[in-house]
Design brief:
By secondary structure, this protein is of the alpha/beta class. The protein contains eight helices and twelve strands. 41% of the residues lie in helices and 23% in strands. It is elongated, with a radius of gyration of 19 Å. The chain starts with a strand and ends with a strand.
Length: 227
């Protein structure tokens, strides 16, 4: 799971990032509102931990802009403010949950797990689309019609996981590059095309009718030929 942490308090941000990485999450960090807004609107994260008081633009505004841009990523809002009006403002701005500083690490992790659970489509930990299933944890791709399966490489798995989680949407090459290689990566779009090609071969190998369709000038989406 890939998380975005938008927090300008250096010590707190460092501590939170270390905590989350120990729990097995990938974490990108932004220290101001403007860079945080751009990262949020990339649409490449599984969840966002968003401070309210930020230089440049505050967390309320970031959440509102994200929801207007149809970004559905769960947002956990952090703030030192505890007044009811601030909680209401945060939730009305598009946050999914609200945590007041100071807080216990265990509570942060529990609330984060609750937000992330909504993105798990099945009880057995697999993601599915069309005639394919992607087993989380083992990175095995299965065609439910043929019964054939194959193990995916790390980047193939992350690409297909991202496409399945955003089924029905076209993902740009930039979004995919940021998701797989990171926000500050120098990876180029041809890297995306290479791994799309690798993953298509795996789909063909298992006999799937689900395909990664290129949308000219835009990006890629998953399609099932019998739908």
């Amino acid at each position: 799971m890939k998380l975005l942490l938008v927090e300008d308090e250096v010590r707190l941000a460092k501590a939170l990032a270390e905590l989350l990485r120990r729990e097995g999450y990938e974490v990108d960090h932004c220290a101001d509102g403007l860079s945080g807004r751009d990262a949020v609107e990339s649409g490449t994260y599984d969840a966002i931990i968003l401070d309210v008081m930020l230089p440049g633009i505050d967390g309320f505004a970031i959440a509102r802009e994200a929801r207007r841009a149809k970004i559905k990523t769960p947002i956990l809002m952090l703030t030192a403010k505890g007044e009811l009006d601030d909680k209401v403002t945060g939730l009305d701005s598009g946050a999914d949950d609200y945590l007041i500083k100071p807080f216990q690490s265990a509570e942060l992790l529990a609330r984060l797990r609750a937000l992330l659970r909504r993105n798990l489509p099945t009880d057995d930990g697999s993601l599915s689309f069309g005639d394919i299933a992607l087993k989380q944890g083992t990175a095995r791709l299965t065609c439910v019609k043929t019964g054939q399966e194959v193990r995916l490489g790390e980047k193939e798995y992350r690409l297909l996981e991202y496409l399945i989680a955003n089924q029905g949407q076209i993902l740009t090459r930039e979004q995919i590059a940021v998701r797989i290689w990171g926000y500050d990566s120098d990876a180029e779009y041809n890297n995306v095309e290479v791994y799309v090609s690798f993953t298509r071969k795996k789909l063909h190998f298992v006999g799937a009718e689900t395909e990664i369709k290129a949308v000219r000038g835009v990006g890629y989406e998953l399609r099932y030929r019998h739908v």
